[in-house]
Amino acid sequence: MPSAPTIKEIARRLNISASTVSRALHDHPSIGLRTKTRVQQLAAELNYEPNQTAIFFQQRKTFTIGVILPELSEAFFSAAISGIEDMAGRHQYSVLMGQSHDEEEREKLIVSTMKKHRVDGLIISIAKNTKDYSHFNMLRQAGIPTVFFDRIPNLTDIHYVACDMVSGTVQAVKYLLGKGHRVIGMINGPDKLLASRQREEGYIKAMQKHRLKYDPTLVVSSDLTKEGTDKAMKKLLSLKRKPTAIVAFNDYVALDAVQFAVKNKYKVNEDLTFVSYANLPMSHYTAFPPVASVEQFPYIQGQRATETLLEILTSNAPADSPASPDHWKKVILESQLMIHNVE
Amino acid sequence: MPSAPTIKEIARRLNISASTVSRALHDHPSIGLRTKTRVQQLAAELNYEPNQTAIFFQQRKTFTIGVILPELSEAFFSAAISGIEDMAGRHQYSVLMGQSHDEEEREKLIVSTMKKHRVDGLIISIAKNTKDYSHFNMLRQAGIPTVFFDRIPNLTDIHYVACDMVSGTVQAVKYLLGKGHRVIGMINGPDKLLASRQREEGYIKAMQKHRLKYDPTLVVSSDLTKEGTDKAMKKLLSLKRKPTAIVAFNDYVALDAVQFAVKNKYKVNEDLTFVSYANLPMSHYTAFPPVASVEQFPYIQGQRATETLLEILTSNAPADSPASPDHWKKVILESQLMIHNVE
DNA sequence: TTCGGACAGACAAACGATTGCGCTTTTTGG
DNA sequence: CCAAAAAGCGCAATCGTTTGTCTGTCCGAA
Question: What is the CATH number for A98?
């Protein structure tokens, strides 16, 4: 019933003007100490809280950042948003979030909702099959700064945070070479994915550094379904030079690949060793965990993306001033091989 | 530069009043067809979008629901928020989210932020150690409807959605009995947790239905750490009547328990069978997965919680009218045993 | 011809807070 | 003691939209 007390209410009770109350609450120098304390006391008594929606409206700022992710129930993204929220909260920003479920249409819808909500900025990891970038252009026109992360669109003039898979892959292959493996297979993802190209690049790099020649038949690709992975495994295991170790595109692929190997009577991690890329926090609890995996630090990526966005927001740049050469912030983290201490 | 076009701008260009434009855009009957189309056309041309912050302010409604969860990177909660966001989106509501990290202080802070943001309603799963409920009372005073889920405070006059563990536990124990087990152990959680009491209740119920006597020494409790679980296992395995099957409090506990069993040369799922409660989506990929687990449907819980909240919001009840007996909505889902087809 | 109503649209207040400017009162310095 | 500066506060506009009420016009019927 006693609907939230407003600044006017306080003004009325104290027989002063609303502007005075506002300034008093903000400790404005032009307000006398007497009235200042009177106001602040009454405000405390009434449990006054400024109506943020009014302020948002007036200030054209919502202290809210939007986050658009493909799928929250994927461990990678839930870790990422966890990092985003932590960092945002630390700077008194709130997080409005939406999941695209990897559908372009939903992604566009969410972008539009976020725009309507007047979020101050956006952090986006794009849907798998998003080909049309018109909604991102709308954002630019609307002057809403956007930072992409992990899954970034194929554009140059954008801010983004990503994790470079090359370094981690190099480490992974080196590790296997160090363990004596000479024939190392790789189950890669679809060629068009940047992530796939980086993995292959890392593979080749590591081989070259060890003065070993790169055998392309050892790198096969899976469409990431179980069937695709099975096919890939068949290919690898029917080679004359059969691999003694395999680098899998991710934990899901590794899981399927291991299963295939087991079915075909391979002794996993004895005659066939697996290394993977971390998606599942618990993958080292599995029956035959990869001996090592490349970590992509989703939580940290989320944090860095948020930091980047906040920098842009507080540098109150006039939205479109791509004049400066370092205008487009590109943060690249190095992936890192984590060796599991198998007991 | 051409900052977002407003209703005023349209009015100016068409030499009509802002109110007319507003009504025209809302297809109000008292506006002539001529002007209506003129307005709508110009609006489309200018790419006009209503300023939601202004509307939120004016309508005292934000079409935003707040979600407070302990930890987004826990699979259970990320599945839940996924359900929440899907259902909210379906009704044009946005989701503002925050994680308490199981800390009472952060929880209170987030509640206050959400209140400031004037969310229309809240969905909360409380932090583990929240003992003081004053922040929830503030919400009630502020007239913000709140639906609790899964982790609910010990209060009667609240809305909540939860999953009853009794039924699932009964099914689990029955299943084991059906498989011929007669001595069934249980590693339960801390006694004070409702979740623990429900599990014990289910255990007893199932025993009684099978006219078997309930042996309290077979139900031990763990503090959910690895050490606690090890201790619990020791207790169980040193009984004269040694259990041939164990119901573990959750997948994490099961993981630790299995590890303990393996170290002590038990043949898991042969001389010692495990059943658990689902937390980890991938737990059936583990080395010795539980033969069955009790599912708590986090995604559905999230959905139902959102539905419940939306009902309250649209029934535009005067916030505090606990007059009606069914005012406090209590939705209880049944947990369900999922039997893993071990190949 | 005149009156009652429909119909189309304009006016203005309101939502709650911020802020530039101007007005009074006090204080200060010469 | 007086002018000028400083201090303390009020006025009013503003942000963009909605909505109750009022005005004006035109038509048909009495």
Answer: 3.40.50.2300
